[in-house]
Structures are given as C-alpha cells and as structure tokens.
Specification:
Order of helices and strands: HHEEEEHEHEHEHHHHHHHHEHEEEHHE
Strand order of the largest sheet: 1-2-3-5-4-6-7-8-9-12
CATH architecture of the largest domain: 3-Layer(aba) Sandwich
CATH class of the largest domain: Alpha Beta
Structural class: alpha/beta
Oligomer: single chain
Largest sheet: 10 strands, mixed
Shape: globular
Number of strands: 12
Helix content: 40-55%
Number of domains: 2
CATH superfamily of the largest domain: Alpha/Beta hydrolase fold, catalytic domain
Number of helices: 16
Radius of gyration: 23 Å
Strand content: 5-15%
Length: about 525
C-alpha cells in the first residue's frame, strides 16, 4: 500500500525542504496562503481567510496572549447533503465547509480566557480528506505566525478523522508543532475505518435485508436515492429487531425482510445481530446498555449476559451503519467507483475465540454460531471493488505510528465510530511505556442500564453515558487534555504519570472516569491486526 501525504505536484518541492529546516517549510507553504481579514470581537482578534486549496480557515487571538497557538482539526463531515431522517439526521443538513477552531464554543472560550490562540480549517472537501487537511493545517500555522509573530509554540489537536490528521502532521512534519493531542482518533489507514463500517453493514444486509446495497452506488441522482434508500432500509431493520426484542427478549423473531432459511431464523435474532457486531468490532456497551445489568426478576441474570450486548450493538449500529452508507457513498463519488472489497474476507477469523467464549450463551451456543458463520460465508453477496477506485483509496496516507513530539491521546472505551482499538494501534506502534505518549481511557461506569419493570430504558443521546458515544468528552476532560498537551509544548516533555494522575483525579466525578493505565489494552480494528 502506497504511503503518500501530499499531492505529487507538491511532494518533490516540499519534502526535502521541510525535513531540512523549519524556516524553509514556512516559506514553502505560506507563500500560497492569502492575507486574512481581521476584526476585533470583544477582547479577541478574529482573522478569517481561504487557503490555496480553497479551504476556509479561522484564527482567534486573545488580547492577553500566552505564546501558544492551539491548532484544531475537526472530524469527518459527510460530503453530501442529507434530508431530515428520523433518528440519524432529524434536521436536514447541507455540506458544512465552515472553519472550526475548537471542539465547542465552550472549550474555545475557556482556552481564549486562559490566553491561548486558536486556529483551524474547514478543509477543502468533506468526507475523508486527511492529506489535503494536513496541507491546510500547515498553511494555517504559517499564516497565523506571519500575522502574529509572538506565537512561540504550537499544539495540534483533533477529533476522530481530526485525530488522524493530527497524528499524520506530527509524523510527517514534526518541526511544525510542539505537542499533539489526537482524540478518539482514527489511525493507521482509512481502510480500517471503512472496513469496520462496511463489514457491519454487509452482515446486516446478509442476515436481515439483501436489498440493501451498501456499496456500488450509481452515478448522479439515482445513486443518491439508493443511498437514502439504504438508510431507510437499515432503520427499518433496526426498528423491527428492537420491537422483536421488546416483545420477546428471549426468542425475538427476525425482520420480515430477511430471506434467511427457517432453520437459521429459529436462532433468536439478537444472536445474529450480536454475531455481526462482534465480526465487525462494534462495541457491546452503548449509551443505554452496559452488558451486565438485568432487571429484578426472571431476566436478572440472563438479560446482562444474553440480551444487553445485542441491544448495545443495535444502539451503536445506527452510527456504524451511517458511516458505512453515507461515508461510503461520498468516498465512491471521489474515487470513481466501489473501493470496499470483501471478496477474500474470512468471516470466521474476524471473531476472536475470546468473544466466542465470552458471548457463547448470547450467541445461542456453538451450533448456532457455526450455522450463522456458515450462512454469512455462503449466502453473503460478496463485494469486489473496482480496481482503479480501490487503488485510489489505498493510495491515501498510511500512518507509521511514530511519535515525534509529546502526545496525549484520549479515547472512549465504547466509541461506536472509532473504537478504542484505533488508539491501541498507536500504543502498539509507539510502545506502551513510550515517554512521549500518554493515553487517557474514558471508561464506562460499572453498571448504568435502567429498567422500567422488566423493560430496559433507552437513554437520550443528549445525555450520553461516559465512555460511550462518538468522541463523547466533557468540557473538563477536553480542557485537561489541552492543559497536559500545552504543558508539554512549553517544556518539551509530558508531565510524569503521577502528575497526570493527580490532574485526572480532579476532573473525575461519580459518572465520568478517565484513567491513565499503561497496562490496559483494547482490541485493534480488524484491518490493523
């Protein structure tokens, strides 16, 4: 797989200069950036502009500046507009090209009040666009330093795809930044994320509705409608499974859209759903379901062991399926065809023996597991990618995992979009005791599922459980990461583990738990194994 960062037209001219000296790098990239328009808003100076790739950027400079610029990289945004869709997109959304300087305005205001300057790009294209984003980040840094020569240190941080961008920036251009903070990061290669989502959708399609496309969308309006149709079909499947488990949690029926044989449908649908989740890597804890609690009564033990994990996959799967459908559709538009390929995937090897043992009862036993994997292998409509589109997708930047500057990462233990295995890959590459890398794990509570009688209560996404949800961090957790990273940018090294643990203890509450545990390990994504 080819490892490239910037377009070939820039690569030769830039690479040697950037490696040689920071000043040459600054000249190389700053020359193409425009002169920003600056205005005073309150006590801050806000500068905006457009870089040479066409990306909007923004820089915020407080009146009392402490010398450090924080460069933010936002996560993946869908590359196509979406209509109002129940559950997944309640309000119609256009493609968002706006610059972003922090995870939220609350974080931005807190950091500005502490004297930090902020900057960020909107990037020139949405969807997966890490390579151009790195170029835009370099231009934003150089523009900010030209406009504000008092900038002495730069901390780069970002979320999800923005974490990938941050890690890529410090791997390739460490002279540009002094510290990094990739949050709930995607790592290694975009193939890992899209395989994760694509495998999950493939399992849903095979077991529950073979009319779902999942990939290979047509050109133009026809393809867009196919994509919208897939969202509707997946939501219908999930709604049917949810209703079936509510009606009969022990032996819920399969959706009417399934074409699986009667013998397979004799297995509870929750077992098939859980198998698909384990095969792809979907977390078995979610916002509402802790995979351990049960209601008082006959389901007290069996609910946590056999039912809760499937309900967690169902709740998490909405986000995983959206990435698979909308994300894949957007990438196919850019790549010129189908890039997801499972023609040679061995589904049986994608479920670990530990999972098979731990969830044996939830999967309805060894015979049921064998039957379900066999059906997935034989009946699944295998997908073969378009060779050119696949080559284009695989030519995108592949990370090395090298840690060149002090780096603090933070990730949720049950993130349904970027599972903690992404961060584990970075730990494995860097070494778990690497003094330049510290990882804060955002852990779920021991128990948190609530019940109304025998029925579980689904929590609102507006009140996410700690450690679940996509990049679900509190204001205090985000400011803690900023504090650690900025301290490292100034001193050139991370605080000691003891000092970080002391800082972590001050932000932890009864329902939010960060831990620094160098012995904790998550399962890497399937593609990264």
């Amino acid at each position: 797989m080819k490892t490239t960062l910037i377009r070939k037209s820039l690569a030769t001219a830039v690479a040697t200069a950037l490696i040689a000296t920071f000043s040459v790098a600054t000249t190389q990239f700053a020359a193409a950036a425009d002169t920003p328009t600056c205005n005073t808003v309150g006590t801050n100076q806000i500068c905006t502009g457009t870089d040479d790739l066409g990306a909007k950027y923004e820089i915020r400079m407080p009146s009392k500046f402490n010398g450090t610029l924080m460069l933010w990289s936002h996560g993946i945004r869908y590359a196509v507009p979406l209509p109002a869709i129940p559950v997944v997109n309640p309000v119609a959304t256009a493609v968002n090209m706006a610059a972003e300087v922090a995870p939220s305005e609350a974080v931005a205001n807190a950091l500005l009040a502490q004297g930090y300057a902020l900057a960020g790009s909107g990037f020139n294209r949405q969807g997966w666009n890490a390579e151009d984003a790195v170029i835009s980040n370099i231009q934003v840094i150089n523009t900010a330093k030209t406009q504000f020569p008092k900038i002495k240190k730069v901390t780069a941080w970002g979320v999800s795809m923005g974490g990938f961008i941050t890690q890529s920036l410090q791997e390739q251009f460490p002279a540009m930044i002094d510290a990094a903070a990739p949050l709930c990061t995607a790592t290694n290669t975009p193939l890992a994320e899209f395989k994760y989502a694509g495998d999950f959708l493939f399992g849903i399609k095979t077991f529950f509705d073979p009319t779902i496309m999942g990939s290979g969308y047509a050109a133009g309006q026809a393809g867009y409608m196919q994509m919208i149709g897939d969202i509707q079909k997946v939501l219908t499947v999930f709604g049917s499974i949810s209703a079936a488990i509510t009606a009969n949690p022990v032996a819920p029926a399969w959706p009417a859209s399934s074409t699986a044989p009667a013998a397979l449908q004799a297995i509870p649908v929750r077992s098939a759903l859980l198998l698909v989740g384990l095969m792809a890597g979907i977390p078995t804890q979610s916002n509402s379901f802790d995979a351990s609690s049960g209601p008082a009564g006959p389901l007290e033990t069996s609910f946590g062991l056999a039912i809760s994990p499937a309900l967690a996959v169902l709740e998490n799967g909405v986000q995983g399926a959206m990435l698979a459908i909308v994300g894949t559709y957007g990438e196919e538009l850019k790549m010129g065809g189908r890039f997801y390929d499972n023609s040679k995937t061995n589904w049986a090897t994608q479920i670990s023996q530990d999972d098979l043992d731990s969830y044996n009862a939830a999967l309805s036993g060894t015979s049921a597991i064998t039957a379900m994997i066999g059906y997935l292998t034989v009946a699944g409509q295998r997908v073969t990618a378009d060779a050119i589109a696949k080559a284009r997708f695989e030519s995108q930047y592949v990370q090395t995992g090298q840690v060149n500057v002090p780096t603090v990462a933070m990730t949720g233990m049950a993130d349904p979009i970027v599972p903690p295995g992404n961060t584990q890959w970075l730990i494995d590459k860097a070494g778990k005791n690497n003094k330049k890398l510290v990882v804060l794990w955002n852990k779920t509570p021991e128990t948190y599922t609530e019940f109304n009688g025998q029925s579980p209560v689904s929590k609102s996404p507006a009140t996410p459980t700690n450690g679940t949800g996509h990049c679900n961090f509190t204001l205090d957790q985000l400011l803690l990461v900023a504090k650690i990273a900025n301290s490292a940018a100034k001193s050139g090294k991370l605080p000691s583990d003891k000092s970080i643990n002391s800082m972590v203890a001050k932000v932890n509450t009864w329902d939010t738990t960060l831990v620094l545990d160098r012995d904790l390990a998550a399962t890497p994504l399937k593609y990264n194994q």
